[in-house]
């Protein structure tokens, strides 16, 4: 058995170093063009900071509104049952006893519900009959459903109290009609409640990758073709895969920057969000930001090269913008559909790009442990997709019809 030829190994190593050395000017050119584009930078930064602010502000508003909102109930005919109107009042419910009024007009005056007690209520109640209560609601009011459920719960508890008092007065144990007592106990963990509240965040972080790199990907492909600078670049003694790789790295740098800024802004805004009121503890730290950034790096490369390939296939600069705008919405709709359908994403799903990244980001946001072997395997699959896309793009650059597509 003959040993390896050291001269051949040295030649291969020298060739690789020469190729990398020739690629450095191309990388410098692509990065300078990408980072000098103010429009692309403004889009990446503004979008990256916009959604964390919207999420923090929206969640704060909804939680505060839910905690501070008081149900207003107008009771007509309270003279027939004064104790009923008195017992309904309490925390979260404001009861106003009115002598007269029209239910429709009262609902239009800021009352969520109108409870009408009939004239026969007192007599029928004393006769142990079932007097009627009339509840008027406005179903077009978004708060009416919550108010109706709250009032029905209080009426049910008062009804049970009356039944118990009547049984005790006649020497009958209340347990006769209530053979068991149901107690609700919430066993959800703070991380699970956090995952429910922050369910949309991973999809938005992934969307940031698409939006932040969109302008640069269109400009470096369809834009250069229309400016005829792509033809000059292809005449240089460089392999086509190096051209695609250099453009991919420049585009991915902007997308990755946008996602990192979005993650960092969200983590910094979390202390300002009233998560403690829901029993949710902030689990994401700066180390979590670093971990999420590493997870998104292979995906940023894949998004960048797919955007470049799609832009190269377009007929014009505007056509590329339109196609990429559709591309950035489609993955978000897919991830939202999987969330709404509550599909179990276990096993081989952890190797699918986008889907696996969404699941990993969810876990890291609420402090769950992510399996390192699964992350490495999923990232390897994503990188293989990147390599395949680069080779496909290199093949597309060798077509003469590419420059005449515009």
From TrEMBL:
Transmembrane segments: 40-63, 194-218, 289-312, 324-345, 365-392
Keyword Membrane included in the entry's annotation: yes
Keywords recorded for this protein, A-Z: Membrane, Transmembrane, Transmembrane helix
GO MF entries: ABC-type transporter activity
GO cellular component: plasma membrane
KW Transmembrane (keyword) present: yes
Pfam families in the cross-refs: ABC2_membrane_2 (PF12679)
Protein name per UniProt: Transporter
Gene source species: Microbulbifer agarilyticus
């Amino acid at each position: 058995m003959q040993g390896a030829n050291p001269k051949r190994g040295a030649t291969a190593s020298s060739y690789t170093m020469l190729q990398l050395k020739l690629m450095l000017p191309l990388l410098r050119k692509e990065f300078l063009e990408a980072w000098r584009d103010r429009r692309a930078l403004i889009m990446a930064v503004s979008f990256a900071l916009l959604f964390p602010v919207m999420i923090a502000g929206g969640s704060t508003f909804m939680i505060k509104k839910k905690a501070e909102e008081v149900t207003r109930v107008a009771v007509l005919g309270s003279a027939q049952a004064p104790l009923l109107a008195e017992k309904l009042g309490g925390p979260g419910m404001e009861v106003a006893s009115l002598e007269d009024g029209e239910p429709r007009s009262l609902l239009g005056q800021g009352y969520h519900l109108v409870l009408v007690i009939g004239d026969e209520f007192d007599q029928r109640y004393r006769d142990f009959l079932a007097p009627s209560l009339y509840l008027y609601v406005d179903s077009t009011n978004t708060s009416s459903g919550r108010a109706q459920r709250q009032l029905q719960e209080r009426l049910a508890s008062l009804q049970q109290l009356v039944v118990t008092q009547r049984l005790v007065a006649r020497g009958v144990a209340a347990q006769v009609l209530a053979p068991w007592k149901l107690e609700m106990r919430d066993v959800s963990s703070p991380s699970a409640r956090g995952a429910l509240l922050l369910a949309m965040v991973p999809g938005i972080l992934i969307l940031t990758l698409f939006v932040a790199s969109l302008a640069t990907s269109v400009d470096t492909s369809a834009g250069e073709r229309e400016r005829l600078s792509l033809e000059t670049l292809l005449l240089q003694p460089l392999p086509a895969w190096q051209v695609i790789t250099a453009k991919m790295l420049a585009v991915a740098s902007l997308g990755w920057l946008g996602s990192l800024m979005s993650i960092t802004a969200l983590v910094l805004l979390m202390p300002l969000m009233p998560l403690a009121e829901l029993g949710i503890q902030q689990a994401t730290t700066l180390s979590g930001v670093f971990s999420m950034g590493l997870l998104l790096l292979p995906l940023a490369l894949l998004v960048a090269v797919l955007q470049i390939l799609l832009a190269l296939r377009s007929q014009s600069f505007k056509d590329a913008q339109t196609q990429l705008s559709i591309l950035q919405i489609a993955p978000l709709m897919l991830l939202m559909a999987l969330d709404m359908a509550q599909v179990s994403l276990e096993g081989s799903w952890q190797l699918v790009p986008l889907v696996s990244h969404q699941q990993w980001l969810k876990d890291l946001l609420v402090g769950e442990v992510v399996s390192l072997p699964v992350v490495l395997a999923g990232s390897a699959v994503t990188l293989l997709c990147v390599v395949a896309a680069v080779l496909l793009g290199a093949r597309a650059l060798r077509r003469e019809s590419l420059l005449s597509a515009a």
